[in-house]
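batch_manifest entry 22 of 60
target: Fimbria/pilus outer membrane usher protein
source organism: Proteus columbae
requested by: lab member K.T.
priority: normal
notes from requester: please return tokens only, no post-processing; we will run our own comparison against the previous entry in this batch. if the run fails, retry once and flag.
--- input ---
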Amino acid sequence: MKSMKINKITKVMLLFFVPFSLPVFAEEAVDFNTDFLTDKGIENTDFTKFSYANYIQPGTHLLATDVNKQRVRNEEPILFFAPDYNAELSIPCITPEVYPILGLKSEWEKKVTWLTTNNTQCLDFRSVPNMNAVGDLYTGILNISIPQAFMEYQDPSWDPPSRWDDGIAGSFLDYNMSNRLIRYENNDKRTETGTNISGVMGINMGAWRFRSDWQASGGNLNSNDKSWRWNQLYIFRAIRSLGAKLTLGEQYLSSELFDSFRYLGASLESDNAMIPPRLQGYAPEIAGVARTNATVIVRQDGRIVYQNEVSPGPFRIQDVNTFGGGTLDVSIEEQDGSVQTFKVETSRLGTLTRPGQFLYKLVMGKPTKNEHDTEGPAFSLGSFSWGAANNTTIYGGLLASTEYQNIALGLGQDLAPFGVLSFNISASRAEMGSNFDDKTLSGTSYNVTYSKQFDQINSQITFAGYRFSQRDYLSMTQFLDGRYRGLHIDSGKELYTAIFGTAFPDYNINTYLNYSRQTYWNRPSTDNYSFTVSSYFDWANFKNLSINLSAYKVESSHNNDEGVYVSLGVPLERNDANISYSGSFNRHNTSNSVNYYERLNERSTYNLSAGTWDSDKVNLSGFYNYDGNLAKLTTSGTYTQNNQSALSMQLMGGITLTPEGGAFHRVTSMGNSRILVDTNNVEDIPIKTGLTPIETNRHGKAVLMGVQNYSRSHITIDINNLPENADAVQSSQYATLTEGAIGYRKFNVIEGEKVLAVITMADKKHPPFGASVYNKDKLEVGIISDDGFVYLSGVKAGETLDLAWNGETCQFQLPQVLENNLSNMLLLPCK
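--- output ---
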């Protein structure tokens, strides 16, 4: 009896430890000496599956593919077969169609050899030294290991083009809606409302992306703009072999040299995002001060390119993604119904290009107006940026039609310790037609930009620029306004721009200055100034107090304003809460308030404030933000004594649909890439997305937004917060998506009960030690131990399970009701 007990324990130890003690990628079989196992029934022990690490029976199995621990292929049927050189092995078949995703250098295409099984070519792993492939049915992953020296260039957040994922077919609708309601407390007690909504509709088919940008507005507050507009209709795709993006349809010109305008046509341009990571592109920074809870809307040529709710006080916008250079119209729609407006005149910083690299842009089309009508002559554009030497870039371009031409040439220079300097000159010629007495206007424009970080004094000139344009120098937009629309041309003369910041670490002080001045040949100049100084400090028992002082001044022919905003914040110990004072002082009014902010949970925050407005009126306001699974909700309200009451709401969300399923979801950036996460029909599975997670819906689907194009994204299940009856066989995957893709990642998540059972065969014997139990999805849910004992996890009442060993199989069914699963031992016959 003692001998039998020892042998049972020995078997159980072998069962759980042998698979983990073998070399992970070994091909040599392991022979077990079973002489020390003296228990009866040793002949009923199956060690076949332990002879090779993670041995998988020949046949087709549903597995995902990882290369060097990075996901490169979703779950697909993979053939396992016994190669001619060793009939005891079972290896996966990597076909010539799948081979490119391995990421081997191109030189290996001529070196690798192929095996043949059932008329199918399969990669011979022996032809790549130290390359191994092991399948794991429990995790549902085929793990491939390749020496890094044989791989294409990679880094932690970038994959070579062979790994880029175009995603799956699907469609989506993203929206950003804001509503305002204002009740005026005057004699007529009138109420006004306003709605602004914008969004993107999209359809993906293979590498092609079909997109339509739209916006609408209505209500008393938007009486001059009650309309539905399709801003853009266009299609695009990545051209991997060229490292470029092809776009067809309605577009806004994006250029380092020429101001943006809208056109209908085709473009082919180098895409910096396809290059290994580095700082790419430029977006303008917009600064201002909101007097109340307000909506900031940024437009270009009437098109909304940015929209967001802000709290009272200074704001800085640094994430205007869709930008083509030129003039941006900024409006701050206050909750009291007033609107601040100003323009941001931007000049783009010449981008240095790596030595030997050549970037290009080719465009053909016709300018458009209003909705989708074209106007003016057809044009073509060609521009380039060439890394001519180690620190020198030469760039230039030509924009030409029968009636308008503009040629530009520039030089960018990295001055080593002295910063980056860029200079370009442009010359235009425009035939103005009858509106200008058939004159031909010609002129030149000179542009200098500079950027420098001063490490010694913790300062940085983020951007500094100067542009001078002659009176008769015209951009394409100015030419179209004058010749085809008969509009007065705003002829810019000089543009000064400076963005400067500095820090004083010893005193925890940061300062920021933004200045721009635009002068004109035919009207008064405009000036914008903003200055901010902030500090963190400790005082008495209070830690990390913050103080902020912001001042601004706007001078133009239609808007003159100046003011100061001050705030003091005191953090509290619980829930990221803080209490603060803020004061706003400008030409129009003076306000003071005391504010309380608190994070209720990982999804919700709120802010309450009370104070005075216009010196003597009581003002109460509140702000609430909720990051839901279905949408992001922001609401706010304001009451001002004897003046007005106002409510506003912003809702950002979308719906994504694919053949694999879909979901409603919140949106961070409209129209961008996304990943549909599938947790095998198990609901309420938390997916990590930074501070605020998302959870799968009742169909086991969730959409993950904020995915960066051509950069590796990490998708992770929060295993610490799984539902009680759910188990994630795998909790982490990767994806590198092309622009606009709908990625798809499926996780093997098992939902069900945990059961103890003893399995018997028809002849009253037990199945062999080491046999595997699989569910209908071919996932291993248990391994037979001594005398038919098995611990099953992730199973459901009434479910039929398969038992397999050494090429033989049988089935058994669980009872229709499972109670006290780990207390009662079930006796189950296998047929």
